[in-house]
Design a protein that fits this description.
This protein has ten helices and two strands, in the order αααααββααααα. By secondary structure, the chain is mainly α. It has a two-stranded antiparallel sheet with strand order 1-2. β1 and β2 form a beta hairpin. α4 packs across α5, α4 packs parallel to α7 and α7 crosses α8. The protein is elongated and about 135 Å long.
Length: about 280
């Protein structure tokens, strides 16, 4: 046997071996992909037939993705946090409301976005209650300076400084007394209280006297005049007039109540049974 014949047989043997290996690898790979494909199809059919399993799987996947994102960012993301924000783009408001929001923002040094939400809400509430929305905004300005977490020494709370303990029944419709610190809820409850005071007193100035708790006193410490003056300025702003911005005084603070009268007036009870008005200092 010649050397060339031996080399030829060896070469053919190597080729045959390589072909067998390649065919075997292809067969294994083909069968593997087939198994994977069957597994995927079976999984999809199972998930379609069992929505509960699909939801559980999606929940686990989202939990894992959120955990990975929190690890990467160093904080826990909440994509729905924007839903809790009391804010609007002032550019989306009607011209009149936007002017009021920007003016209040500059005067009270509060961001225009949350103020825009309050202005829009005040206009909506004003239409329902037949109270001028700029009056509601004036009350908020004088009472709290637009601080939604303000609290007086006698328990008046929030933007409108409503006596939460006295008007807890009104807050039940909003989930309880802690809703007093939700700006929109406080505005709605405060507007309702103010509406009742005005109806009982027969006029806005007298209603403001009831609202501040001075219904049984000869004067209210200048409270009504202060609110009405701010109301007048806001009306001018709403009508497109240029109104100078003066540095606002400190937000209104409530003084401790003096002894209640033997037969308290309903107006005094409406805002906490105070026999002394809230001071303006």
């Amino acid at each position: 046997m010649t050397a060339s014949g031996t080399l030829g047989r060896f070469t053919r043997g190597v080729q045959t071996f390589c072909c067998d290996v390649a065919e075997g690898f292809f067969e294994i790979t083909h069968n593997g992909f087939a198994v994977v494909g069957l597994a995927v199809v079976f999984s999809v059919l199972t998930l379609l037939a069992r929505p509960d399993l699909r939801q559980a799987g999606e929940a686990q996947l989202m939990t894992w993705l959120h955990a990975r994102q929190a690890e990467t960012l160093g904080l826990v993301p909440e994509l729905d946090a924007i839903d809790r924000a009391t804010a609007l783009n002032p550019k989306e408001l009607p011209k009149q409301q936007a002017a009021v929001a920007y003016w209040l923002s500059r005067k009270y040094r509060v961001a225009p976005e949350p103020l825009s939400a309050l202005v829009a809400e005040a206009y909506e509430i004003g239409e329902r209650t037949r109270i001028d929305p700029t009056l509601l905004l004036a009350v908020m300005a004088v009472e709290s300076g637009f601080n939604p977490f303000a609290q007086s020494p006698v328990g008046a709370q929030g933007l409108m400084q409503v006596m939460t303990g006295v008007h807890s029944d009104k807050y039940e419709n909003f989930g309880g007394r802690l809703a007093a610190f939700d700006p929109v809820t406080n505005l709605r409850v405060g507007a309702k209280v103010l509406q009742e005071c005005i109806q009982r007193a027969g006029s806005v100035p007298a209603g403001l006297k009831y609202y501040v708790g001075a219904a049984l006193l000869p004067e209210d410490g200048g409270y009504a005049d202060k609110v009405l003056a701010e109301h007048a300025r806001l009306q001018q702003v709403a009508h497109g007039r240029s109104v100078p911005i003066a540095t606002p005084p400190a937000p209104l603070r409530t003084v401790a109540p003096s002894p209640a009268p033997t037969v308290p007036d309903p107006g005094v009870i409406s805002q906490g049974g105070r026999a002394a008005p809230r001071s303006l200092g």
